[in-house]
Amino acid sequence: MRVAAIDCGTNSIRLLIADVAGGKLTDVARRMEIVRLGEGVDSTGRLAPEAIERTRKALVGYAAEIAELGVDRVRMCATSASRDASNAEEFRTMVRSVLGVEPEVITGDEEARLSFTGALHGLDAEPPYLVVDIGGGSTEFVVGFREVKHAVSVDIGCVRMTERHLHGDPPTPAEIQAAERDITKTVDNALRAVSGHGTATLIGLAGSVTTVAALALRLPEYDPRQIHHARIHRDDVTKVTADILGSTVADRLDLPVMHPGRADVIGAGALILRIIMERANKASVIASEHDILDGIAFSLV
Question: Is pTM, for the whole model, over 0.85?
Answer without folding.
Answer: yes
